[in-house]
Every structure is written in structure tokens, then in C-alpha cells.
Specification:
Elements: E1 2-5, E2 10-14, E3 23-28, E4 32-38, E5 42-47, E6 53-57, E7 62-64, E8 75-77, E9 81-86, E10 91-95, E11 99-100, E12 107-110, E13 113-118, E14 121-122, H1 129-137, E15 149-150, E16 153-154, H2 156-166, H3 175-178, E17 183-185, E18 196-200, E19 206-214, E20 220-226, E21 228-234, E22 238-241, E23 246-256
Antiparallel strand pairs: 1-4, 1-7, 2-3, 4-5, 5-6, 8-11, 8-14, 9-10, 9-13, 12-13, 15-16, 17-23, 18-19, 18-23, 19-20, 20-21, 21-22, 22-23
């Protein structure tokens, strides 16, 4: 059994072993994976954090003898990006949500190589729902990107997975899988900050997700990735876009994770 780790800022994870294949996810700096198949140029991998599988270019990852599997002992990048420097002084800019394994006093290890880090980190999972909202706001106006997981481009479930990861809650990669976790909340008026709202298409398939927030008057809004990361009105019907005076997504249900 072979393992690897991402030591670049962001590596495309594709549906098939081809540069032309669909981007289904992104592998972030410090994320570990198991290699389940390969050809001359590509590895078929399964990410250790969420069991998501994809294909990555062999030239863009680093092999390891065994996984460190130390996410609980790691820091996570909580600034939009940061700078990792290896002992030679080479710099790598790494995005929010990246993993810094065995982090201590501004240093961490990637496959035995020591790095220093400049930027903001989160060391524990003791994040309140209000702090989670502050983290979510850091990604406002980031453009939507199918398969994206970073401040350079993100999709709806990548957004919720990344923000909840910083709060110590491991969500699956896709909204349909996220939707079957948590405690379902029956009525909108019972929702709280940082509950997740899920939305369905005409065939009742979950197609979208966002994070609920309440204003000072307890009106419900949602922060979500649709065109860009944005805040819209949420009611019993779904997401209402004030600018276009239309409903853009039909609500399915709401779940709580805290």
C-alpha cells in the first residue's frame, strides 16, 4: 500500500487520468492520501480526511512510506493564504484550509522536511458558531469554481466543508453526503447560526448547500457559493435573491452539527 502528501499550494483532482477530465476536487497543501491505482503519469488516490477519490498528476505530489495521519495534531491555515518556507528558503503560498502537520511554534513537517509558516492558523476545534461565521466571511466574493476548495475559487460544498473543517467538524466532500449527517431541524424559525441548509432540484436531489446566519432581528440569511460566495435571504421556500426578485434555490431541509 502506498501513500502520498500534497506539498504544492493546490493540486487538481480529476475524475479521470487526463488533464482534460472534469475537476472534481482539489488537494490542498499538507493533505495526505492513499494511492489505490496508477498508470505511467497519474495516481488514483483516496484522501485520508474525507475518503474522496480522484486522479492526480504524479509530478504534483510527494510519496510517503506511510501516512502520518496526524490531522488532530495539525494546524489549519485560517488566513486567506500564508507562506510556507522550507529550510532552503524556497517559498510556497498556501490557501485557507491547508494542513500544517505536526505544527509547533511556527514550524511544521511535510514528509520529514521542516517548514516555517507565516500566516494565521487554528490549532484546535474549539470554534464557536460566531467564530465560524467570521471565518466564512473571509471567503465572501470568492468566485464559484466547480470542484474548487480555496479562496481562489470554490464550490458550494467545498465552501461548507472548508469552513466546518476549521471548526473541527469533518464533513464529506459533496452536498448530498453532507445532507445525511447532522441533526435535522424541522422548522426554519428553530434554526441557529451555522446550521446548514440544503437545497434540491425538481427530482428532489440535493444540489446545493449553504451556512445559515441570523441578523440582529433574527431574520435568516444564508452565506453560500453561487456565482461567488455571497449572502442572500433565506425563507421557508428557499433562497431569495433581492437584486433579481427571484428564488434561486428550493429548500430541502436544515441540519445542525454543533
Amino acid at each position: 500500500m502506498s501513500y502520498g502528501i500534497c506539498n504544492l499550494s493546490i493540486v487538481p483532482g480529476r475524475a479521470e487520468p487526463s488533464d482534460r477530465a472534469e475537476l472534481v476536487t482539489q488537494v490542498l497543501f499538507g493533505e495526505e492520501f492513499e494511492i489505490v491505482d496508477e498508470n505511467s503519469r497519474w495516481f488514483h488516490i483516496v484522501l485520508m480526511a474525507d475518503s474522496y477519490d480522484c486522479w492526480v498528476d504524479k509530478k504534483q505530489v510527494l510519496l510517503m512510506e506511510r501516512p502520518a495521519n496526524q490531522e488532530s495534531q495539525s494546524a489549519f491555515v485560517s488566513s486567506l493564504d500564508g507562506i510556507a518556507r522550507d529550510m532552503k528558503g524556497d517559498e510556497t503560498r498556501i490557501p485557507l484550509g491547508s494542513v500544517l502537520p505536526q505544527y509547533e511554534d511556527g514550524s511544521f513537517l511535510i514528509a520529514g522536511t521542516e517548514y516555517s509558516f507565516t500566516g494565521d492558523v487554528i490549532l484546535s476545534s474549539e470554534t464557536t458558531t460566531d467564530e465560524l461565521q467570521t471565518l466564512a466571511d473571509k471567503l465572501l466574493n470568492v468566485p464559484y469554481l466547480w470542484g474548487g476548495r480555496t479562496s481562489y475559487g470554490i464550490d458550494c460544498s467545498g465552501f461548507t466543508q472548508t469552513i466546518f473543517r476549521l471548526a473541527g467538524i469533518a464533513l464529506p466532500r459533496d452536498s448530498g453526503d453532507q445532507a445525511i449527517m447532522g441533526e435535522e431541524i424541522e422548522h426554519l424559525e428553530e434554526t441557529q447560526n451555522s446550521d446548514l441548509a440544503f437545497f434540491e432540484n425538481k427530482k428532489s436531489k440535493i444540489m446545493h448547500v449553504g451556512i445559515i446566519r441570523l441578523d440582529e432581528e433574527n431574520n435568516r440569511h444564508i452565506i453560500h457559493a453561487s456565482g461567488k460566495v455571497r449572502v442572500d435571504v433565506l425563507d421557508d421556500k428557499g433562497i431569495y435573491d433581492v437584486e433579481t426578485d427571484t428564488y434561486t434555490h428550493n429548500i430541502s431541509h436544515i441540519s445542525r452539527y454543533f
